[in-house]
Design a protein that fits this description.
alpha/beta; Aminopeptidase; Aminopeptidase i, Domain 2; 5-stranded mixed sheet; 12 helices; 20 strands
């Protein structure tokens, strides 16, 4: 498969996944096609050597794994961790309100998006609906509006003369509501919204009890650049890492490696990960412990397995943008299409340390993949990942890595075509060796 074909698969994956709930559903279809079986946390597990399994928690976090034939206490778990959510806008519970002759949709900021990038885009919304089924039980259903329904028009420069000098600043409460429709005297705003959702879900309005909706950009991903060497789409942070990890897991050599290999993709990273399904919750520890216990290991053997394990915490990295040289540490600039980035921070904002760093470099060299090292400017606060919290909770050696990208947390992010294959190749090597 060519580099372009590999990235086209990524773009298709992102375009099919306009919310964390859709991302997990998309990955579930790929796992089922590769003969993985879904298991439920509420049921008793029966796991076989060589078996392929996945478990989903609350629709938007997923852990897929293969039971290896090699002794777990000696060889440990090999884990790739990433996250399914992206920063953006979420629709408020009482969504639509009337302002003059227009209906607006109220939104809440999720995580830390670049708000200005949401203006003048063809927006819509997607997520999940919770409803009362005919049997009386509470069920959920994915919903997606593919057509543009929402927009955040910029204020004309004639009314905001300083915008090019001072930048676009949007008040989160008063200036972020999205334009939705003209008001109608025949229909109340809440009724219009509930009926729209009910029709899309093929449900009666009285069945719908609650919902969670993510605002997304309807424009599909594209290649760009003089040689089409770059690509752009929404949610590269961090669906690009999820796609790379899943691609490595489904590689036949990795599946037949005899090792217990795992992909753990969590929701809520962008808001701190402290939730029932976040990386700072119990999901991964619960799954790892159950794999050990069902496999006949005692607590001592389980702790030995953790001590023998390794995790790649994979999130995107900040590529050098030459228009803004002052934003980067001079000696630690990283570039798109130059290989995976090892992320380092003395204050443990990243989990990498010299041993885990060296091990990742060794896997890169075995896979014939270039690598780069990144350190943030000392005078600018550094972001973080799921790496530090997960490695601290489990006691598993971890390295933080990612592909270099531009415009992180924009609604339209960019990265390099070569880097996606590089990351998949080193992940395959990690799983196999």
């Amino acid at each position: 498969m060519s580099d372009q074909q590999q990235v086209q698969q990524l773009l298709d994956f992102i375009d099919a996944s306009p919310s964390p709930w859709h991302a997990v559903a998309t990955m579930e279809q790929q796992l089922l096609a590769a003969s993985f079986s879904r298991i439920n946390e509420t049921e008793q597990w029966e796991l076989k050597s060589g078996g392929r399994y996945y478990v989903i928690r609350d629709d938007s976090s997923i852990i897929a794994f293969v039971i290896g034939s090699k002794a777990l206490p000696k060889h440990g778990y090999k884990i790739i961790g990433a996250h399914t959510d992206s920063p953006g806008l979420r629709i408020k519970p009482y969504a639509v309100h009337k302002t003059g002759e227009l209906l607006r949709m109220g939104v809440e900021v999720y995580g830390g998006p670049i708000l200005a990038t949401f203006t003048d885009r063809d927006l819509s919304f997607a997520g999940r609906v919770s409803y009362r089924a005919e049997s009386g039980v509470i069920a959920t259903r994915l919903v997606r509006f593919k057509q543009p329904l929402l927009r955040l028009p910029n204020l004309a420069i004639h009314m905001n003369r300083a915008v090019n000098e001072e930048g676009l600043k949007l008040d989160k409460q008063t200036e972020l509501p999205l334009l939705f429709a003209m008001s109608s005297k025949e229909q109340l705003p809440d009724t219009l919204f509930s009926e729209l959702v009910a029709k899309q879900c093929d449900l009666a309005t009285e069945q719908i009890l609650s919902w969670e909706f993510n605002v997304y950009d309807t424009q599909k991903g594209v290649f760009w650049g003089g040689d089409q060497e770059f690509y752009a789409d929404s949610q590269l942070d961090n669906l690009a890492s999820c796609h790379a990890g899943l691609s490595a897991l489904l590689d036949e050599a990795a599946l037949q490696s005899g090792r217990t290999i795992i992909c753990a993709f969590f929701d809520h990273e962008e808001v701190g990960s402290e939730s029932t399904k976040g990386a700072d919750g119990s999901f991964l520890p619960d799954v790892l412990e159950r794999i050990a216990l069902v496999g006949g290991l005692n607590t001592e053997d389980y702790k030995r397995a953790l001590a023998s394990s390794f995790m790649l915490s994979v999130d995107m990295a900040h590529a050098y943008q030459p228009n803004f040289p002052a934003a980067y540490e001079t000696e630690h600039r990283v570039y798109v299409n130059k290989g995976p980035v090892i992320k380092l921070n003395a204050n443990q904002r990243y989990s990498s340390e010299s041993v885990s760093e060296a091990m990742f470099i060794n896997w890169c060299q075995q896979a014939n993949v270039p690598f780069q090292k990144y350190a943030h400017r000392t005078d600018i606060p550094c972001g973080s990942t799921i790496g530090p919290m997960t490695s601290a909770k489990l006691g598993v050696r971890t390295v933080d890595v990612g592909c270099a990208m531009w415009a992180m947390h924009s609604i339209r992010e960019s990265a390099g075509v070569l880097d996606h294959r590089y990351m998949i190749d080193v992940m395959r090597c990690f799983f196999k060796t």
